[in-house]
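Try it yourself: sequence plus adenosine monophosphate, in.
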Amino acid sequence: MTAKRLLDDCFLHDKDRLKHHEALGILKDRLSAIAEVETVRLEDALERILAEDVTAPRDVPLADNSAVDGYAFRHSDFDEAGGFFRLNQRVAAGHASDIVLGPWAAARIFTGAVMPPGSDTVAMQEDCETHAQDGENFVIIPQGLKAGANCRKAGEDVSAGTSILKAGQRLRPQDIAAVASTGKPDISVYRKLRVALVSTGDELRRPGDLITVGDVYDSNHFLLRGLSAIAPVETEDLGILKDDKALVERTLRDASHRFDVILTTGGASRGEEDHMLEALDRLGQQHMWQLAIKPGRPMMFGTIGSSVFLGLPGNPVAAMVCFLLYARPVLSVLAGGHFLQPQSFQVPAGFDIAKKKPDRREFYRGYLETDDEGRQVARKFMRDGSGLITGLREADGLIEIPEDATQIKAGDMVAYLPFSGFGIR
Ligand code: AMP
Ligand code: MG
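Structure, out:
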């Protein structure tokens, strides 16, 4: 498994904190899919990751057909004045006709019906007049129609042999519709990653439990459970672990036999009550990164057996930011998808930062707003605390300030990463 190679390197003890782009670069280079491939019916393919390129086995549409309700005719019969055509057949969708259209003959035709042999153009019914004479029906088609008008050509959507989807794509409704249009009933996708969710800390309680001074409700579990839904994973809740060395070790060992990924929050630092690193050391290989970002800093990557370990910080803001920046692309790649990078665009800052530490990248919770002059600007959530869920709630994106910036003045251009670009709102 390629994920293991991640941990064999020597940058483990780097004194310098790893820069954001370096961390992403390493993860991108070293990780690859671990989920196996399975075949599912199209009904079950939504949001799954495609494991094979898909090529159209036949033309779509299969035959030339009418785009409108109207009258099909031979354009070469047309003259300056339009045309007076004898109706010799009626063709509805699903009922192809083999009656050849002779000169000055037309067919009553409906949307989706196959063009009768010899016809090449369709006039819309709204533009035509019909006329009965001596027991025969005629249609008067006005001039001005181009050859081929209102006729959909065989293969104009996709022609047989064309590649329509690529392996690694996350399947959207319109992608599955495209496969269905070619007649393929099933599709090869990666199995969903099995992810264990673990919260750690003596102080943590689940909502509904009694709480006393010093206790904290486990909000991260719900944060990560929700965030995980943006990746093709199945999560299982392993509950809250006390800060107990033996318990942490036992739980991680058991989980490594059952899950592709163990996603934890808390206990990620080197404090006396932080047991993750030690457990990881004993059970597998740890790779802890001190990242030069705010919020976040300690992020753990590792492997235990064939399972990948992702240890997020305990502070909710740091947990969410680290999930979006690092865990999301990692989960996507392990699940067979692409290394996902958020969409970002430049907007004027609607705030000041008087002094920023150089050499680290900062991510603020932000939202877009129209200022007094009608410009769209990025506003920053006022308070910086890494424990404040309020900022996450009020934000609709992240503001990214690069390492080399030491201050920001209102009006400076800054990168804005909307949550929608991460697949959340
Ligand atoms: P730790 O990473 O364990 O040192 O925790 C850092 C901070 O995050 C502490 O204030 C914890 O109480 C808090 N914290 C840790 N885990 C959670 C959680 N699951 N939900 C809410 N807060 C947490
Ligand atoms: Mg803790």
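One thing you can check immediately is this: The longest helix spans residues 316-334.
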